[in-house]
């Protein structure tokens, strides 16, 4: 035990000895149940730090990254956050792949006054506003609002909701139920499924049989939505199907089968449809540049929305460090809060004292699956 | 004066708890220390169940979950003070263990392992799916018990990790003391007798079913207290704590350190909590190293690290 303690101490000393550079910390769920989110995040963060350093760092100083994998466990995330702040003496943190890990990290960030940019969806992270906590992904509530907006424009007002019982699905379901009424949408069916279920035909049949139903919305992430899309085709349901922003990736089309997924709509970021964007769109250049460098660094693995969140967080953070008068956590925090007009892959960020998310609904684009690819609606 | 094994165990434990902080360069080490203690509390419960009584539970994380969520739900929904919630959580865990264990423990063999496995999975599912009550898979915030503020008003200022290091250490010490006392009590002797041979124990007048049930209830209370302490110091609890993998981790800690000895269990908890922290340097190989350590211990030191080391120290003469 003593040997382990001395070993840890020695490692810690070695780490501090080498730190004349600017040190930033990252905690992501590279392994575990949220690894499909955390893995592209970790790759993006590593890639961007490397890129920045080959370009000469920030103001001549190299960026040093300390990245820990919390495997999706909030208790581990909290320990690593304590470690980053207390032991590695980082000036800022990025990460928190899931809402649970983000909430665990933000408690440490607030207590030790180190800025933290979260990569998780839930609105609780930045509402109420906490001085040292920011986030880059749009909230689930915004996804619901965007979908409802599109439904209403097509005259679809009586809908059925089917949700996964995992963190993503449960959180989005709650938000959709909250904002449905004010958006003029009536939810006439509300079914759930386990994230690993292999067949959702009973739930879908239940929903289809509700009188007057006009569309179905699935708030879910991972395998579930693909299964639903396949079941949808097997049952021959012709109602419009909406999926969540959580499945906005080419892998989803492959999993569900291009034929089954034809016509499915979902809110996504510009990242997926970079080539289709209007050349005047300010996001086009950013999105294509990130896509190219990620796919090169990841050996051909496709970009995902989640890597995009990490990209935006790193852009905001490195931009703030460059602008801040000193590399002290408090100065960096002020510079992050002063970020405006920063074009990321997710949207254009305008942080302020009262808004630590900085995105509006225009960040989302409604995409439709068309011939095995994506089509911009509107 | 020669110290009894009980006294020396407690002395070693107290010395390690008090001396270690002198080597801590930052609060992070207190945080890891307090996590070691929390896991060790649950593992001491497993030592009583598995080491003393020879019963295996694969669902103890379920009780950790009950204890943890008691500290979140009772204060939030019913306004119970968090300190009282720890006690109520422990009572509830004990009662549930009694209800689950009573029919099961009349049977011989692996029934407890299977039933507790199902029980643990059920608890985790309820916690994840009943979002209106538990906050769902993203977890729920836990209120501050206010103990640190109380100490501050008495003039003792500790950082958050320091406070939890001291508090969890104290609870672990009391837990270990109780477990060691139990070892030599009539109840403990009955447990060890039925571990050796249920038939022989019954012949000697031990109420086997009742003794097993006692061990199961006591170990559930330990797990519940550990869960409460984890929830209170994290100020957040998620359904993962009740998950199957966490149950396995707890049993692994006990078996690795030596399920038959309290100090062994604590050592196992310390080792498996510290290793992932040390191994972040080579995090890609973390699971490989953990697996290798487990295999080597099982092959070469089947009684667990501490009991095997003790035997080695005493030499062959014994």
UniProtKB/TrEMBL annotation, chain A:
InterPro entries associated with the record: BCAA_transport, Leu-bd, Leu_Ile_Val-bd, Peripla_BP_I
Entry keyword Cell wall biogenesis/degradation: no
Domain of life: Bacteria
CDD domains: PBP1_ABC_RPA1789-like
Keyword annotations of the record: Amino-acid transport, Signal, Transport
Residues of the signal peptide: 1-20
One Pfam family cited in the UniProt record for this chain: Peripla_BP_6
SUPFAM superfamilies, per the entry: Periplasmic binding protein-like I
GO biological process: amino acid transport
Leucine-binding protein domain: residues covered: 22-370
Family: Belongs to the leucine-binding protein family.
Listed name of the protein: ABC transporter substrate-binding protein
Phylogenetic lineage: Bacteria, Pseudomonadati, Pseudomonadota, Alphaproteobacteria, Hyphomicrobiales
Automatic annotation (TrEMBL), chain B:
Primary localization class, coarse: membrane
Topological relation to the membrane, as annotated: Multi-pass membrane protein
UniProt keyword annotation of Transmembrane present: yes
Source superkingdom: Bacteria
Transmembrane region(s): 7-24, 30-49, 82-101, 110-128, 163-182, 250-275, 287-306
InterPro entries: ABC_transp_permease, LivM-like
Keyword hit for Transmembrane helix: yes
GO molecular function, one term: branched-chain amino acid transmembrane transporter activity
Swiss-Prot/TrEMBL keywords: Cell membrane, Membrane, Transmembrane, Transmembrane helix
A GO term from the CC aspect: plasma membrane
Places the protein is found: Cell membrane
Pfam families documented for this protein: BPD_transp_2
Protein name, per record: Branched-chain amino acid ABC transporter permease
């Amino acid at each position: 035990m003593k040997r382990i303690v001395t070993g840890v101490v020695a490692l810690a000393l070695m780490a501090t000895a080498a730190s004349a550079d600017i040190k930033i910390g990252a905690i992501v769920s590279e392994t575990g149940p949220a690894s499909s989110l955390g893995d592209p995040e970790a790759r993006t963060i590593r890639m961007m730090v490397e890129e920045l350093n080959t370009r000469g760092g920030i103001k001549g100083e190299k960026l040093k990254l300390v990245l820990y994998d919390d495997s999706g466990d909030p208790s581990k995330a909290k320990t690593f956050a304590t470690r980053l702040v207390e032991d590695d003496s980082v000036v800022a943190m990025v990460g928190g792949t899931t809402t649970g890990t983000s909430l665990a990290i933000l408690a440490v960030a607030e207590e030790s006054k180190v800025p933290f940019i979260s990569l998780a969806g839930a609105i609780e992270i930045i509402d109420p506003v906490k001085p040292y906590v920011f986030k880059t992904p749009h909230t689930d509530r915004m996804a619901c609002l965007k979908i409802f907006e599109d439904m209403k424009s097509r005259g679809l007002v009586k809908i059925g909701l089917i949700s996964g019982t995992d963190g993503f699905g449960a959180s989005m379901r709650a938000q959709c139920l909250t904002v449905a009424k004010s958006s003029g949408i009536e939810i006439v069916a509300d079914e759930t499924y386990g994230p690993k279920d292999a067949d959702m035909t009973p739930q879908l049949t239940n929903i289809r049989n509700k009188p007057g139903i006009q569309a179905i919305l699935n708030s879910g992430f991972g395998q579930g939505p693909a299964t639903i899309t396949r079941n949808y085709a097997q049952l021959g349901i012709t109602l419009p199907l909406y999926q969540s922003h959580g499945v906005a990736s080419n892998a989803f089309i492959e999993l569900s089968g291009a034929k089954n997924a034809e016509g499915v709509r979902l809110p996504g970021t510009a990242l997926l449809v970079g080539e289709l964007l209007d050349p005047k769109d300010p996001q086009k250049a950013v999105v294509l540049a990130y896509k190219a460098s990620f796919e090169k660094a990841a050996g051909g693995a496709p970009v995902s929305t989640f890597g995009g969140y990490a990209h935006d967080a790193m852009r905001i953070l490195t931009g703030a460090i460059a602008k801040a008068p000193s590399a002290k956590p408090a100065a960096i925090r002020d510079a992050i809060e002063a970020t405006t007009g920063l074009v990321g892959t997710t949207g254009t960020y305008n942080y302020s004292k009262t808004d630590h998310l900085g995105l509006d609904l225009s960040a989302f684009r409604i995409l439709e699956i068309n011939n095995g690819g994506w089509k911009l609606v509107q | 004066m020669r110290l009894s094994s009980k006294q020396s165990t407690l002395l070693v434990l107290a010395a390690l708890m008090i001396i270690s902080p002198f080597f801590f360069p930052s609060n992070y080490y207190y945080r890891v220390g307090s996590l070691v203690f929390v896991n060790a509390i649950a593992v001491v419960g497993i030592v009583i169940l598995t080491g003393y009584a020879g019963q295996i539970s694969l669902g103890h994380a379920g009780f950790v979950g009950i204890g943890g969520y008691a500290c979140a739900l009772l204060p939030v929904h019913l306004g119970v003070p968090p300190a009282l919630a720890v006690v109520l959580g422990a009572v509830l865990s004990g009662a549930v263990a009694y209800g689950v264990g009573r029919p099961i423990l009349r049977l011989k063999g692996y029934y407890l392992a299977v039933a507790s496995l199902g029980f643990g999975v059920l608890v985790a599912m309820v916690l994840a799916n009943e979002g209106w009550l538990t906050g769902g898979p993203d977890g729920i915030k836990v209120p501050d018990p206010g103990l640190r503020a109380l100490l501050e008003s008495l003039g003792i200022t500790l950082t958050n990790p320091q406070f939890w290091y001291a508090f969890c250490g104290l609870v672990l010490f009391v837990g270990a003391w109780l477990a060691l006392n139990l070892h030599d009590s009539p109840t403990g002797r009955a447990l060890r007798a039925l571990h050796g041979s249920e038939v022989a124990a019954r012949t000697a007048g031990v109420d086997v079913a009742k003794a097993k049930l006692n061990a199961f209830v006591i170990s559930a209370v330990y797990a519940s207290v550990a869960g409460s302490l984890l929830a209170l110091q994290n100020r957040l609890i998620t359904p993962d704590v009740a998950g199957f993998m966490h149950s396995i981790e707890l049993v692994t800690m006990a078996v690795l350190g030596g399920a038959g000895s309290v100090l062994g269990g604590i050592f196992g908890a310390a080792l498996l909590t510290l290793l992932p922290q040390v191994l972040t340097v080579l995090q890609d190989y973390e699971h490989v190293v953990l697996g290798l350590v487990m295999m080597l211990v099982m092959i070469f030191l089947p009684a667990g690290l501490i009991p095997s080391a003790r035997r080695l120290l005493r030499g062959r003469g014994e």
